[in-house]
């Protein structure tokens, strides 16, 4: 008996009102997803544009969609489509779960991590999840799962993963360019695979154009902007690899020739309305305060190439420098520490009238936006809980922030005064610290740029809540001393800069 021959599945019907071309139907669906995504995440995209305009380290993010298109296009060409099995109920359930998670990440987690906003960019994670959920509604779960490697690459390429790569590579423009090339390398690997070694070898050669371009920039134009370090090599790789994939023919399996992509066949308009509704909900959620950071105050007090001058009534007893700043704030960044002691004791600051001790950490960088990306606590690896911040006027248009940090292991509390300023493409951050132990040998946290410690704190917040890194019972015992010190410190830098200009 001859077994019945299964007829090839019929092509998915196009969206109503669209010419019966499946390719056009797919393009219309993707255009709809793209339009709703842009409208829903307009604030996030605007912040990304602002970061790019000021040559911020997150300017690389525009290569992520280009790399994703490269990876998805190559994967679609080399991987046969699965047989179409429509389970609309499963599609809807999974899509609603993913879209709900996207809204929660955007509306709940992003505000919780507001201090680390530019370092993590969780709103971009929410954007990717939104696109995944919308894709499931308009194309079906099987069609979206087919591109799992592309989604994974996109999530890992977002700023939180990129910054870890840059730090581990040593920091600086070259490290930023190499980390960006790692994204296109992953996209190339996904697009090419290993099923055709000849094409894989050709694509590898094409991708190598990017590293060569980076070497040329390092050798001939080392002072060019960080954005060009990130964009030119990666775009060169993407263009060359895309050309190879278009030129190199690939054998199409006979089984694949009779299959069509598993597009969702029903409820497309209903799914579109649901995606639009979620997009409107996301657009109505404001990003947390502080995500649109004001520009650094411009000050004549910035002096590069020498240590800050001590304020009147204080003298420097110890100085030191740390290389860790280069990993976070650029290859030319410096981090200097000064230990200062008051000339005379003050009974209001110490009941025994002992001269108080403070340390001043000064970060100087030619990447001003890096100060916004990496908050001060990234420099230190201590088990600390931070208090709320209080703004104080330090004079000359400079505003500082007072806070306390409690270390539960050392049973110490540090009082901190932080402020920043910039001029002519340079920026400085000052962290003035005192400790509640007034002995001369009292410990201060050492700068070590332990990103791992910061990430562990972030995961602790995720699983246990923000109370694990925030101190709600703080007392600002040294607020008066630090405020007076800060005003004198700012005044001293103004005088030092004025003397240097004569």
From TrEMBL:
Keywords: Membrane, Transmembrane, Transmembrane helix. The chain crosses the membrane at residues 27-45, 92-110, 122-144, 150-167, 174-193, 199-220, 227-248, 268-287. This is Uncharacterized protein. It comes from Mycolicibacterium parafortuitum. The lineage of its organism: Bacteria, Bacillati, Actinomycetota, Actinomycetes, Mycobacteriales.
């Amino acid at each position: 008996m001859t077994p019945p021959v299964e007829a090839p599945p019929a092509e998915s019907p196009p969206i109503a009102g669209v010419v019966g071309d499946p390719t056009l139907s797919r393009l219309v669906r993707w255009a709809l997803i793209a339009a709703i995504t842009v409208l829903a995440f307009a604030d996030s995209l605007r912040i990304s544009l602002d970061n790019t305009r000021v040559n911020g380290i997150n300017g690389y993010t525009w290569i992520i969609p280009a790399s994703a298109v490269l990876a998805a296009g190559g994967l679609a060409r080399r991987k046969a489509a699965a047989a179409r099995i429509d389970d609309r109920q499963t599609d809807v359930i999974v899509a609603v779960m993913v879209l709900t998670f996207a809204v929660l990440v955007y509306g709940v987690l992003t505000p919780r991590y507001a201090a680390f906003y530019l370092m993590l960019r969780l709103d971009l994670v929410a954007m990717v999840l939104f696109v995944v959920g919308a894709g499931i509604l308009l194309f079906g779960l099987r069609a979206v799962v087919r591109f799992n490697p592309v989604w994974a690459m996109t999530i890992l390429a977002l700023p939180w993963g990129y910054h870890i790569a840059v730090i581990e590579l040593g920091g600086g423009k070259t490290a930023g360019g190499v980390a960006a090339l790692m994204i296109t390398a992953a996209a190339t690997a996904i697009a090419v695979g290993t099923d055709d070694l000849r094409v894989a070898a050709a694509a590898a050669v094409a991708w190598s154009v990017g590293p060569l371009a980076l070497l040329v920039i390092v050798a001939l134009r080392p002072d060019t902007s960080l954005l060009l370090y990130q964009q030119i090599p990666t775009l060169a790789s993407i263009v060359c690899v895309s050309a190879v994939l278009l030129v190199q023919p690939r054998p199409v399996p006979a089984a694949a020739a009779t299959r069509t992509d598993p597009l969702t066949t029903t409820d497309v308009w209903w799914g579109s309305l649901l995606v639009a509704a979620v997009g409107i909900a996301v657009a109505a959620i404001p990003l947390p305060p502080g995500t649109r950071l004001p520009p650094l105050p411009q000050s004549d007090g910035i002096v590069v190439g020498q240590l800050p001058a001590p304020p009147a009534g204080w003298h420097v007893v110890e100085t030191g420098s740390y290389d860790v700043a280069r990993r976070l704030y650029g290859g030319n960044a410096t981090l200097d520490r000064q230990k200062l002691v008051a000339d005379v004791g003050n009974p209001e600051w110490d009941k025994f009238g002992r001269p108080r001790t403070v340390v001043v950490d000064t970060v100087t960088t030619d990447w001003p936006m890096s100060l916004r990306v990496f908050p001060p606590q990234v420099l230190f690896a201590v088990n600390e809980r931070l208090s709320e911040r209080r703004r104080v006027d330090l004079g000359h248009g400079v505003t500082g922030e007072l806070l306390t940090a409690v270390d539960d292991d050392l049973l110490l509390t540090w009082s901190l005064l932080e402020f920043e300023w910039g001029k002519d493409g340079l920026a400085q951050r000052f962290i003035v610290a005192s400790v509640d132990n007034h002995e001369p040998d009292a410990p201060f946290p050492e700068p070590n740029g332990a990103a791992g410690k910061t990430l562990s704190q972030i995961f602790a917040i995720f699983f246990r809540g923000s109370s694990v890194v925030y101190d709600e019972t703080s007392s600002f015992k040294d607020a008066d001393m630090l405020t007076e010190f800060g005003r004198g410190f700012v005044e001293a830098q103004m005088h030092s800069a004025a003397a240097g200009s004569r």
